[in-house]
Design a protein that fits this description.
Blueprint (H helix, E strand, L loop, with lengths): L2 E5 L3 E5 L3 H13 L5 E6 L3 E6 L6 H17 L6 E6 L6 H5 L6 H10 L1 E7 L6 E4 L14 E4 L3 E5 L2 E4 L4 E3 L2 E5 L20 E6 L21 E10 L3 E3 L19 H10 L8 E4 L3 E6 L3 E6 L4 E4 L2 E3 L4 E4 L4 E5 L7 E5 L3 E2 L25 E4 L9 E2 L9 E5 L8 H9 L2 E3 L7 E5 L15 E2 L4 E3 L7 E3 L6 E2 L3 E5 L4 H5 L6 E2 L1 E3 L2 H14 L4 E2 L6 H4 L3
Parallel strand pairs: 5-13, 27-36
Antiparallel strand pairs: 1-2, 2-4, 3-4, 6-7, 6-13, 7-10, 8-11, 9-10, 9-12, 14-17, 14-25, 15-16, 16-23, 17-22, 18-21, 18-23, 19-20, 19-22, 24-25, 26-37, 27-34, 28-29, 28-35, 29-32, 30-33, 31-32, 31-34
Helix pairs in contact: 1-2
Length: about 550
């Protein structure tokens, strides 16, 4: 039987002792997601749905899960068995089995003779957890994770065998690789294995392992034209949009703009539809040359912009002629700026989104010098400028839970009484806080990893809080003390390292109301107009 619990103001956790009940409901939802849902994720016994609080409330989200669960009961999802070729060439193989009671020969025999079962999909795109590993071969995860594990790696982590669907960081013990492409964002669904499916391994030599063909899907819109050439990138810059809808079920982070409010304003400014890809420029900057005449728009507090060396006011739409050079750099008060192109940037989509995920590298890669950006034809006249933000600074609002039982009354109060400082180790994955720390407690972990929601504030055993941002892992094993409300995401994402932040609790319905208010106001912040024929008549 499913039980429900709210997670922040716009997500619902649901649990069951019967893991199949959770998984079946999640995958049934993923087949035809209701319009109100933004994301779906699940682990062994816990599912999560994130919904749009401008369209629905928690009752509607819970009803959608119940309907999916009933549908899954009456129409069972077919299960499959596939064979996977594996080369036992993992970096940790010798260390794992040298001097062990059960050696490499016994492990090889186990792989070749047993049938393993997909338990769930995991923390990175297409990561597969497999049940069935004998206890004598189980090993704890590595104390220091690798920064990059190649796609196709097969590894041991605790009681599981794992298969990395894409290249990503990871702390599992590497035992081998498979040449088979088990995760491909061009497929629907993108993974060939789902929970409950069976896997049999076939141990092969390196010369027998033929990799799957890697064909890159091309761009299809004939109206796309060269618009901008990247001349220099200081630090990093990438393309973002609203993120991947309901992709968490495949282990894929939603991603999207780190500051969704500023990103939305940049698109409003040039007349683009919501969700149109734009440039996100973090600490650092970018230099671009126009390859045609077009309109650009910017959003982000204190952004520095120049056109052929002359300053341009941030928060304005401006024309740029072919051959002109625009430079954009971050301000000294915020982390992320946005540059939009009238008509929108045209780029290959990964699971229906152009967003770059920094954690796994999923999506279009970061921009590089020499790259040409394509754009589409504008569909609506651009605005002129953005109205200034009149918001009075107050503590960042959070909704308590969902793991309040893991924290004492004193710890829950500490969150709103202390002053925290933004750490220099922060990124699009999460904002790390220091300056004020919770007490260290080794037991501050969850029994099983659970799905994470945007804005969740995890507190690891070491006591340093981490606020989940756009590229956060789909699941996590540390308890969440509270969740930053959607209306205040920019106020936790934008402050530069060293900035001081404070939190205050609000009720979930207050948070939903604040979000709906901000959604209603947003379209009215881009004002004035610029004519389409300005590009032909303006003197540059």
């Amino acid at each position: 039987m499913l039980t429900f619990e709210t997670f922040g103001e716009a997500a619902i956790l649901f649990r069951s002792a019967d893991g199949a009940e959770v998984e079946d409901a999640c995958f049934r939802l993923a087949e035809e997601p209701p319009a109100l849902l933004i994301d779906i994720a699940c682990t062994r016994h816990t599912g999560l749905v994130t919904y749009d609080p401008a369209l629905a409330g928690p009752d509607e989200a819970m009803a959608a899960v119940r309907v999916a669960a009933v549908s899954a009961e009456t129409s069972q999802r077919p299960q499959h068995e596939i064979q996977i070729a594996v080369v036992l060439d993992g970096e940790d193989l010798e260390e794992l089995f040298t001097g062990a009671e059960s050696g490499l020969r016994e492990f090889t025999e186990e792989l070749a003779s047993k049938t393993f079962t997909v338990a769930h999909l995991g923390f990175a795109p297409g990561f597969i957890y497999l049940d069935g590993l004998s206890e004598r071969f189980r090993r704890p995860r590595k104390a220091t994770p690798r920064t990059r594990v190649p796609a196709g790696s097969i590894a041991i982590g605790g009681p599981y065998l794992g298969i990395y669907g894409t290249a990503s960081p990871g702390g599992w013990n590497l035992v081998g690789t498979t040449p088979q492409r088990l995760f491909d964002e061009r497929r629907e669904p993108p993974t060939v294995l789902l929970p409950g499916d069976s896997v049999r391994f076939r141990v092969v030599s390196a010369h027998e392992a033929a990799p799957d063909e890697d064909e890159v899907a091309g761009l299809t819109d004939p109206s796309a034209h060269p618009a901008l050439e990247v001349l220099e990138v200081a630090g990093a810059a990438w393309i973002e949009d609203e993120g991947r809808r309901c992709a968490g079920i495949w282990g894929v982070p939603r991603s999207g703009a780190a500051d969704p409010w500023a990103y939305g304003l940049a698109n409003l400014l040039v007349g683009n539809h919501a969700g149109t890809p734009a440039l996100e420029i973090p600490l650092g900057g970018i230099k671009l040359r126009a390859l045609t005449s077009l309109h650009l728009g910017s959003a982000g507090v204190g952004l520095n912009i120049s056109l052929d060396g002359r300053p341009v006011d941030a928060g304005h739409c401006f024309p740029i002629a072919s051959g002109q050079i625009v430079e954009v750099s971050a301000s000294d008060v915020s982390c992320y700026g946005y540059l939009s192109v009238a008509g929108g940037i045209h780029v290959r989509r990964w699971l229906r989104s152009a967003s770059h995920d920094r954690l796994s590298g999923f999506g279009p890669p970061p921009l590089a010098a020499g790259q040409t950006l394509l754009a589409l034809q504008p569909s609506a006249p651009p605005k002129d400028h953005l109205l200034p933000d009149r918001t009075v600074p107050v503590p960042i609002r959070v909704v308590a839970g969902p793991h309040s039982e893991h924290f004492s009354d004193e710890e829950r109060s500490f969150l709103t009484e202390a002053e925290f400082r933004i750490s220099g180790a922060s990124s699009r994955v999460g904002v790390r806080l220091d300056g004020a720390l919770f007490a260290q407690r080794e037991e501050r972990t969850l029994e099983e990893s659970e799905p994470l929601a945007l804005g969740a504030i995890q507190v690891p055993p070491g006591g340093e809080p981490i606020v989940m941002l756009a590229d956060h892992p789909v699941t996590g094993g540390y308890p969440v003390i509270a969740t930053v409300i959607l209306a205040d995401l920019d106020r936790i994402a934008q402050p530069r390292p060293g900035s001081v932040v404070r939190f205050t609790y609000v009720e979930a319905e207050q948070a939903r109301s604040a979000y709906r208010d901000r959604v209603a106001v947003q379209p009215h912040l881009a004002v004035g107009s610029r004519p389409f024929d300005e590009l032909k008549s303006a003197e540059f």
